[in-house]
Fold this sequence. Notes:
Structural class: alpha+beta
Family: Belongs to the CMP-Neu5Ac hydroxylase family.
Keywords: 2Fe-2S, Electron transport, Iron, Iron-sulfur, Metal-binding, Oxidoreductase, Transport
Enzyme class: oxidoreductase
InterPro entries: CMP-Neu5Ac_hydroxylase_Rieske, Cnh, RibonucZ/Hydroxyglut_hydro, Rieske_2Fe-2S, Rieske_2Fe-2S_sf
EC number: 1.14.18.2
Amino acid sequence: MDRKQTAETLLSLSPAETANLKEGINFFRNKTTGKEYIIYKAKGHLKACKNLCKHQGGLFMKDIEDLDARTVKCTKHNWKLDVSTMKYTNPPGSFCQDELVVEMDENNALLLVELNPPNPWDSDPRSPEELAFGEVQVTYLTHACMDLKLGDKRMVFDPWLTGPAFARGWWLLHEPPSDWLERLCKADLIYISHMHSDHLSYPTLKLLSQRRPDIPIYVGDTERPVFWNLDQSGVRLTNINVVPFGLWQQVDSNLRFMILMDGVHPEMDTCIIVEYKGHKILNTVDCTRPNGGRLPEKVALMMSDFAGGASGFPMTFSGGKFTEEWKAQFIKAERRKLLNYKAQLVKDLQPRIYCPFAGYFVESHPSDKYIKETNTKNDPNQLNNLIKKSCDVTTWTPRPGATLDLGRMLKDPTDSKGIMEPPEGTKIYKDSWDFDPFLETLHSAVEDEIFLHPSWIKEYFTWAGFKNYNLVVRMIETDEDFNPLPGGYDYLVDFLDLSFPKERPSREHPYEEIRSRVDVIRYVVKHGLLWDDLYIGFQTRLQRDPDIYHHLFWNHFQIKLPLTPPNWKSFLIHCD
């Protein structure tokens, strides 16, 4: 098969339309495909891009605050793009927009051209063979965890089957089948998509490693290694395989898989194509724009996230516009946008079967009652109904222990044996969680000797390595209800020069106030963990002035902290 780069013409303008391009921003729509584009003109020079926000695929419109006619604003989250530079200005220092090639023909007509690399999954193509009934079975365990029987091999995705994720903020919604550990132990290989603890669950892997430390685990070669914290976790796994993106990994003569990176978070997020006898299973997991939006069409089975709610925004924010009414309206609108986006993705890709998963978590600890009530999630049946209205795709809302027989479903989607539901009386939803051991582990950090010395603050933020950025943050340790903790730390960090002033500086500066539950913030500090435990785990309450998302700051503390924890042993020696 010819796998050279291809050039695709996305938009053509007549000579007259080209001559009438105005200085500044021009919006165009390809009437045939319905796709939108932006052309920027400045003194005869032209730049162009898709009218598609890199964050979550929103549409750009003119920014009325932009007097220079260079900036467009996303209708989804108000991200702003300077089309003269193709750099995003809100959030500052975040992404660059991919440019399209602008070509003029001999008649001065304009063409917008996209240079497309070959699709990696098209290398060494295989024709689908007929599957025997029972040959390929996909069993849902819980959240993002699927157990795949592929001929005589078993593969498991993202096993989070016990304990919390994100410190103590997320707990399993579904009760996994009682034999989940036996199932994991029987697996021939495990794929872990990324480092977030609802996918890379150390409590789960600890139990697995005690029985099978040599189980083969496969992860993508992300900039931030998926298992960056393995040594410190105390979990002993001896067969972790880091594989390059976009290359088939052969398991046996019938089975292979390929890991692809996310277009928005390539430093940490991945997705996977599994192929058995020519039938593809696409799992996009949590990717915002999996493989930059280029994905195989007409796969046998596609699964993706759908629920929303995997962020502290806006539930943990207060002040300014963040009233309860505003939050409720925002969450409702966001969930609807996400449903429409996923439904459109399924319509575009036309898989034979689609399964919404990786959204089955609950904020079940009593202290997070407010989050649980506020942070509504999408209903998988609602998404599946939306899909059914617009395209002929079979949908599957999974229940723990339910098994989809791919051979049966491909032959006849109405086959009553195509999906075997769990036995009558099987417990579907969890109604109790073993909070105590995990909360005790977090709480053990509170009395640590480190925190007897106020100089830990300078030690920690120097280790973190974020500076030369005009932002002042007030960090406040709190009790369970986010009230300042008597005797707890309350301090300012000025990230412009990494100083710790007693008062806010007199210069103009953005300001954030971060209140954090003392057990979680001290555990995160002590072990050098990423701030996802705080932010995605709903363990903070935030205010900011002005109301701007500081991408560089949050991206650093959520993804780019050093790979080794602070050297507290050396710190304590010097303190003494």
